[in-house]
Design goal:
Length: 152
């Protein structure tokens, strides 16, 4: 199953402000530690509709609101989603040819759907986390070396 990533739009100032207020108010309700929470939504008809949601979903909503408040675009991607090479490249901030090379060199698992390569979102995030960890280790090694040689 391929999940198409939609084009992202940055929130405007009003959306960021509303998101910040919503995040703060939602955080207060989540501090109760209940497994579910009921929220009320007022519809166009001015009728209040109560919805019971898992606290985990509201926690994710709080995180999304935090990103919007910071002016970031957000997209929810299911962990089992299959990405095209272009979508995967965009998420790693690399070119599509570089992404294909990573796949062909065995750096990341993939499968083919017809002639098209597909990458699991979970595998991509694991690779990204590993790459970031290796980068931090390399920076720490350089800092240690500079410290040892008196270059600081």
């Amino acid at each position: 199953m391929t999940t198409s990533l939609t084009a992202l739009e940055l929130p405007d100032a009003r959306e960021s402000e509303l998101a910040q207020r919503g995040q703060q108010e939602l955080a207060a309700f989540l501090s109760t530690k209940f497994e579910t929470q009921r929220i009320a939504i007022v519809g166009d008809d001015n009728q209040t509709h109560t919805i019971e949601l898992p606290a985990r979903a509201l926690s994710m909503l709080r995180d999304i609101l935090g990103e919007l408040a910071a002016g970031n675009a957000v997209q929810v991607v299911p962990i089992h989603a299959e990405l095209t090479t272009q979508e995967a490249a965009n998420m790693l901030n690399v070119s599509r040819p570089h992404m294909v090379k990573l796949l062909e060199d065995g750096k990341l698992p993939f499968h083919k759907t017809g002639r098209h390569r597909r990458v699991l979102f979970a595998d991509l995030m694991e690779y990204k986390q590993k790459r970031e960890h290796e980068s931090l280790e390399a920076m720490q090694a350089l800092a240690d070396q500079a410290q040892d040689t008196g270059m600081y």
